[in-house]
């Protein structure tokens, strides 16, 4: 039950990462709208956070896309778009984010730039999964880093 052709796992991963990214970025943008953070901090912090997480997430997208492609045409459980390590990382990141906000462990200006940059990087990773789905048999070049990966 709940099995799909493995190629559709790329679409599921894309949806999960796009939704997560848009929600995280929304929280950052809401903090900006509430007047958190000054302009210089936002102009420096958002791109810096984005670049750090984009480099990390682009590796994860490539790794997960390659693993999903290795399944061939088999039908797989819909939750196989991540491996165990991926789910652990996701749980730690989500739990950490909830703790940061719930217990007010960081100021609002940090949420403003960090969540906006992180959310954009997550959403772009979702786009990366879409690109891997669309170019399953070709090469993919990252527009940010210029790295070339097999599709």
UniProtKB/TrEMBL annotation:
The chain crosses the membrane at residues 37-57, 78-100, 106-131. Keywords: Membrane, Transmembrane, Transmembrane helix. The keyword Transmembrane applies. This is Uncharacterized protein.
